[in-house]
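ok trying this again, last paste got cut off
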Amino acid sequence: MRSKLFNEDNHLTEMSLKAFKEGHLDDKSLILLSEHIACCEKCADALANSFNDNELAKAPLGFQEEIHEKINNKKQKSFQFGFYSLKVAVAACIALIIVFSSQLNYLANTKLETSYIKAPDLSIVNSINTNLYNLSEKIINMEVFNNEKEKK
């Protein structure tokens, strides 16, 4: 069977190409020819050239415009991505320039005048605390004194 499909140079014969195109091959032969066509450029070219213009399928209406539109959309998306990348790169460069510029070093080395907040006067709070403490001591002492009287 191999001798019928291939010539002495191990390329497809005209008869095997015709049978392949018309679908008259059994499964094993079809697989064998398909694998050979996939690997052999000469046989793939011979198969492609064996088709007449009237045997080829016609592209549907608007197919060419659709393909051009898809290509243009892809180019536009690629351009937009490139422009976005450029903006990000410029922003990163500007940020690095600001961080490492001498102006920041100058600002970092100059001392700013700091304002100090006066500590609050806590004497009133201390006097209230003292008075509350004294009052609570008196109440405790009175209770203790009253309890001692009752026990006697």
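PB: full thing came through this time. The first helix runs from residue 2 to 5.
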